[in-house]
Amino acid sequence: VTPSEGVRRGTRRILEMLESLLALGGLVLLRDSVEWEGRSLLKALIKKSALCGEQVHILGCEVSEEEFREGFDSNINSRLVYHDLFRDPLNWSETGETLPGGPLEALRALCRRTHPGPVTIALDSLSWLLLHLPCTTLCQTLHTLSHQDSCRGDSSPGEQVHVLGLLHEELHGPGPLGVLSSLAQTEVTLSGAMGQASAHVLYRRPQQRPTHQTQWFSILPDFSLELQGGPPLEPQPYPDPRVPSMDPTTHLTFNLRLSKKEREAKDSLTLPFQFSSEKQQALLCPGLGQATSHIFYEPDAYDDLDQEDPDDDLDV
Amino acid sequence: MAAAATCSTGTRSTGSVVAAASRNSVTSFQRRGPRASGTDSGCSRLVSIAGTRPSVRNGQLLVSTGLPALDQLLGGGLAVGTVLLIEEDKYNIYSPLLFKYFLAEGIVTGHTLLVASAKEDPADILQELPAPLLDDNCKKECDEDIYNHKTESNIKMKIAWRYQLLPKMEQARPVSSSRFGHYYDVSKRIPQELIEASKWHGFFLPEKISSTLNLEPCSLSHSYIKLLQFIQNIIYEEGFDGSNPQKKQKNILRIGIQNLGSPLWGDDICWTENCDSNHSLTKFLYMLRGLLRSSLSACIITVPTHLIQNKAIIARVTNLSDTVVGLESFIGSEKETNPLYKDYHGLIHIRQIPQLNNLIYDVSDVKDLAFKLKRKLFTIEWVQDNYLRQERNIYPPGFSYLLKQKDSAWGEGSLQHSTFLMSFLAKATAFASRLVRHSEPLEQTGSGGIRQAAGPRLWHDGPRQEAPGLLVIPP
Predict the structure, then answer these.
(1) pTM for this structure?
(2) What ipTM was reported for this prediction?
(3) Contacts of B186 (CB under 8 A, 6+ apart)
(4) pLDDT (tens digit, 9 = 90+) per residue, B107-153?
(5) Which residue of A has its CA nearest to B306?
(6) How many Å lie between the alpha carbon of B193 and the closest alpha carbon of chain A?
């Protein structure tokens, strides 16, 4: 494999990873934690969508606009439509710059957009929205957002809506996490080992078995993705290789295999509860010596041969 | 054993004897068959509605759920006026399939449908229904299925032969459209003309509730109120509750509600354990059941119980529904790699069967049912060699290795196997009974009384003796 081919293969794999994340459309849930942050992956996805020519809307709630835009070059920055909910979410300064109605209204405005064409909506972050909006409203709005194309009637694959939501796992209990996982079409959980980030991706195609894959990656300063092979392997202390386990079939005191004759004998054996014709005959016409059956009994140490019934004493 | 076998043949023969007798007119006792009278619709008291049949146990009117195997497990079918609750599997792959089977059965038998969903448009749901298998083209598929099954079930059991007497699950048979349950081909869509010929009503929540509505907290969520009103209107207008006496032909209304209890319906129960609308879903189910009991309708509901945080709500929802079926898929769980389950896609649990006009339940004896989604069919089967698995649990670990060997001298039916089994079980019971035995006699109350301690000693007839050998503390 020549180096250039390797690079081409590598770039293809990088593109594949981002494309596969965006392929299914709908809601892409990025679950991150304090150790492995997800905003850089979110920005990488935004950059990819912008380069593909989609409209990109960003609902920024957690970081300021300047901080979010830093790292993007100017042509990408010009394509991003930023809705700022960070500076003045409750509209206290009353300058009229912020969106009236707060985050819910902003989401609903995105639902009602009339521009045709594929669009990517990035929610930074879903955790902030969960804390400020009633959960059922948020779920219903997310569902409407991610299924806009089907509502419109024309569902060509180029007209897909991508909703990228960043969710901080540690802030929420199992309930919200479970609900948002069930709503999402693609779910990316960020984790890692030894300084190397990994993404565990779960694809939920409708009415098909979900598939998952794990990808080790790192994000470069210009928000392009670089795939890694895996964490640098450290020699881990393994337990001493055990004595090779004994084959239990050796040194047996009984027979483990049957010879042909033995098998025939076994198959022809009538089991005691099987009602064969000989038994029927034996029962129907009791033969000699079978008239009475004898019971041989030897009393042992615990036997109480007292014929007196102890219940006679009862005064009932 | 053999006596039982002769008995069953005996009943068949008495039936034929009676029939022979009536033919010969030897006796004046005429056996009245179920279809002895000529026309059934005229002189029978039961209204015969297409797609229904009375239960053989208590005469309750039943409709088919769309899966004849499931009908068999539920005791013949779903009773009219009851709710079938499906507990969804984790990734929601198989429960929509049961939902669609129910609706497809309604279309094929000509029932009216009411589909309610907060996620998908009901028109889209109807487009994805499976196509019914009709007489001509299903014969070759059924034949190959039966052939596959016959080759698997050739294992004769010698010691556990009673397990062979377990009733077999119904195999796919060619059906006619007048039969009670139909078979469907999951890989094909239902033909468009069948959908157009059927009567259906859809309730798609985002259309019915405007998003700018200011939701005041109330005990029953607004979506549920709207849905109940919708169902009530349909029942009243179309006369399913008998309020429209001009209707000549009675019909059944099949209601299907998808994903009830998820936040898309405006319900909080999947979100937190203690929420304001804790009782919303239970109130809805109570009112729904009231509506159903007073009308000719049957309802299927799928609920994502794996997402509900409060276990008490799951219990309440189960109690408020009549028939409860739980689906557990193996995807992502450790059972996926279990060799026992390698042929199946998940387990199906029949959690509850209603006691309608009955004193006793009709619960099936078999607890281990698994389902498999083949390319065309959704099948439900008993997990094979289940008893062997249970036996392995009581045997010491090394022994199960021997049991697994084919042709081993320790296999099924061998003398070594049975003697080992007997002595092992004897020792196990001796050990267990040693722990149960009281070592001291009970407190004496009163003058006379029982002098001996409670225990196996008292349970022998005749002079008080201990059974020799078995129940003595092993040295």
Answers:
(1) 0.71
(2) 0.72
(3) B97, B130, B373, B375, B376, B377, B378
(4) 999 999 999 999 999 999 999 999 988 765 554 555 455 445 444 44
(5) A178
(6) 22
